[in-house]
Amino acid sequence: MLHDHHDHDHLSPSGHPYRADNDVPLTYWQTMEIAVRELLIEKGVSTAAEIAGQIDAMDRRSPADGAQVVARAWTDPAFKDRLLADASEASREMGFDIGTLRLIAVENTVDVHNVIVCTLCSCYPRNLLGMAPDWYKSREYRSRTVKEPRKVLSEFGVVLPDHIQVRVHDSTADMRYIVLPERPAGTDGWDTEALADLVTRDSMIGTSVLSTVT
Amino acid sequence: MRMTKTGDVDSFRLPPYGHEMTEFTGKRWHDMGGDDAGPMNGHAPTDDHDNALWEKRVDALLVLCSGKGLFTVDGLRRGIEDLGPEAFETMTYYERWIASVNQNLVEGEIYTLAELGERMDSVAKRGDTYGIATHDG
After folding, report:
1. Which residues make beta-bridge pairs with A105?
2. A212 inside domain
3. How far is B130 from chain A (nearest CA, A)?
């Protein structure tokens, strides 16, 4: 998506090159963002460096963070207990910044499949998974997941047998969920690093299940 | 949308609609859990895109402002709800966010609508693209 033009010489305060969309016409809302940001800096609420730092911190977050937590829970029963008791604290223990969020881990088992949604807006365990995918924020996902989860899941290619109970967790601004997927069969003796590589973003949302390793 | 005219102070006022609950469900428009909606087919699980710099900045402003106690994430959501149901169709995700962040900051008296209008005017005069209008390259 990079364009070959002069803007490549200009770095943002975070040290990143400006993205390609910076050379399309300025919109009303972009104008508002610039104005709001400048006013916040002038009023002493924030600084350019702090804003850039926050962007960098968010950019560094990815589902690989959540995958580390999941892999640890699979290999360390005491950690798993702590995770299920208080996912915020257990994640902090591993060095992840959870902020003031109450994070709740919900465990998939042979009998139970969990899926997370935010019907009111787009609340998501971003501190462990990074930014939410677009579909998570869509009207379709928000509306239907609480009403016909099996049908929604089937549209993701996840067809659950009737004997498996589906639990849907509706997130709020201050309370977020993350799914602890089932450890795939065929991974006995694997170390946490290899296990973490198996864990996908969607398996921690509940819209995919990890397949048996052969 | 009525909020299209840069620098028009009144245009920043959010419309009053959206507070009324609908006759049949008692829900406001954003409370869409359980509504009928189309299939997920239009949203492939892999359809990620990287956010633009301005969108990341909006996100950062929300996180920083809420972290400093200027307003809450619930306040962000309330501001988005106040935009009314058509905003969901006519504005992008981070357009709704910056509209709400701004509304919350004005309500919190961090700056005035007049200050915002003046600044938006001066920003718009800097140039035609985001890269030029943002003063940090």
Report:
1. A178
2. no
3. 5
Total domains present in chain A: 2
List of chain A residues whose C-beta atoms are within 8 Å of the C-beta of residue B52: 19, 21-22
Residues A145, A195, single domain; the answer is yes
Q: How far apart are CA A169 and CA A87, in angstroms?
A: 15
ipTM given for this complex? 0.77
Structure token digits, residue A96: 């992840």
Query: What single DSSP character describes residue A8?
Result: G
Instruction: Say if the Cβ atoms of B30 and A120 lie within 8 Å.
Output: yes
> How many angstroms separate the CA atoms of A112 and A57, rounded?
34
pTM of the model: 0.79
Q: What is the pLDDT along chain A (214 residues), one digit of tens a residue?
A: 344 444 444 444 444 444 555 566 899 999 999 999 999 999 999 999 999 999 999 999 999 999 999 999 999 999 999 999 999 999 999 999 998 789 999 999 999 999 999 998 889 999 999 999 989 988 899 999 999 999 999 999 999 999 999 999 999 888 999 999 999 999 999 999 999 999 999 999 999 999 888 8
Which residue range forms the structural domain that includes residue A96? 62-205
What residues of A are annotated to the active site? Answer: 118, 121-123
A152: number of Cβ within 10 Å: 24
CB A127 within 8 A of CB A87: no
Contacts of B125 in chain A (CB under 8 A): none
Q: Do B33 and A147 touch (CB under 8 A)?
A: yes
d(CA B118, CA B111): 11
**Cβ density class A51-73: b for 16+ within 10 Å, e for less:** bbebbeebeebebebbbbbbbbb
